[in-house]
Design goal:
The chain is of the alpha+beta class. The strands form 2 sheets. It has a 6-stranded mixed beta sheet with strand order 2-5-6-7-1-8. It has a two-stranded antiparallel ribbon with strand order 3-4.
Length: 205
């Protein structure tokens, strides 16, 4: 993936980088197993998010106990290609760092969907949000119910609407630890889309 082809600037903080390094270490131990497969899926997802060939699976909402994540999006990931997606990647849309620049996508967490220390707990912790509180500043994003069932067209419409709000929302700024992925390269590794993988649909399953 060349920088010229990117539609979005991907930014990530130290905690997301730790998630990524842990996945890479596990993949080195088990390259042909679930760990290796999950790591490859994560790298492809990050490349697709930069290219704009995916916008994630669906927008998140507010639910007591899972926190207020109305400005966040989740993408689905599998550790087993024959099973349901058991991991999630969360990110936020935000405006460019400077006029004329690329809009940004801030990667927040990669964790299992369920269980202790799940994706929602980690995402709220990294955003310094209480799991039981609403964030009044996020009212601009509306009040999507997490339990709402939507088809692909409805999910995409919600993603498009939330992205437009985020790009115009002055309070939507990255975490203090977040840096552009290609600038720091986090240990010399540069994320690239798999050359063998075709363009993924705008939503994942």
């Amino acid at each position: 993936m060349s920088e010229d082809s990117a539609r979005y600037e991907v930014v990530l903080g130290k905690e997301f980088a730790v998630d990524l390094m842990r996945l890479a270490a596990a993949a080195e131990e088990d390259p042909r197993g679930p760990a290796g497969y999950l790591h490859r899926q994560v790298l492809k997802q990050i490349g697709d998010l930069a290219l704009g060939s995916t916008d994630g699976r669906h927008a998140l909402g507010y639910e007591s106990g899972k926190g207020d994540l109305r400005d966040c999006v989740t993408a689905y990931l599998q550790s087993d290609p024959q099973a349901k997606a058991d991991y999630r990647l969360t990110f936020r849309e935000m405006p460019p760092a400077a006029p004329g620049g690329l809009a940004r996508r801030e990667l927040l967490a990669i964790k299992p969907r369920q269980g202790s220390g799940n994706i929602y707990e980690h995402t709220c912790a990294r955003l310094n949000r209480n799991l039981h509180d609403r964030q009044p500043g996020l009212n601009a994003f509306g009040d999507r119910m997490p339990s709402l069932k939507q088809n692909q067209a409805q999910r995409q419409a919600q993603l498009d609407a939330n992205r437009a709000i985020a790009h115009a929302f002055p309070g939507q700024v990255p975490l203090a630890t977040s840096r552009p992925l290609t600038a720091d390269r986090f240990g010399g590794r540069r994320v690239e889309a798999s050359p063998k993988a075709g363009r993924e649909g705008r939503t994942t399953s």
